[in-house]
Amino acid sequence: MADLAPRSYLFVPGNRPDRFAKAAASGVDVIVIDLEDAVPATEKKIARAALAEWLATNSTPVAVRVNDVNSEWFRDDIALCRAPSVAAVMLPKTERIDDIFLCEFAGKPTD
């Protein structure tokens, strides 16, 4: 039998690592760690570092909502998405097919 499509998504702000484990234990179909709108500009690097630390010690599959391809944070965000437990990448504000191709090197499906 084929896998069912996800029914529930839980968005967790990337600057709230205290919520990552709670989300993993929630039973939700997809955990989305949001590095974009949920994180103030002054906390982007801190959020990325917190997620990297969590990914290094946890195997729970997650999706990561990265910052816009035109932002100063995009390349570092997408590089983080190479982690084995990142199952998908969510691209905000995508307007062109080329935006999607920029993520290709991460080797992850895009939503």
UniProtKB/TrEMBL annotation:
GO BP of this protein: oxaloacetate metabolic process
One GO MF term attached to the UniProt entry: magnesium ion binding
Keyword Lyase: yes
Domain HpcH/HpaI aldolase/citrate lyase: 7-100
Family matches, as Gene3D superfamilies: Phosphoenolpyruvate-binding domains
Keywords, in A-Z order: Lyase, Magnesium, Metal-binding
Source species of the chain: Paraburkholderia aspalathi
Cofactor(s) the record lists: Mg(2+)
Entry-linked Pfam families: HpcH_HpaI
Name by which UniProt lists this protein: Citrate lyase subunit beta / citryl-CoA lyase
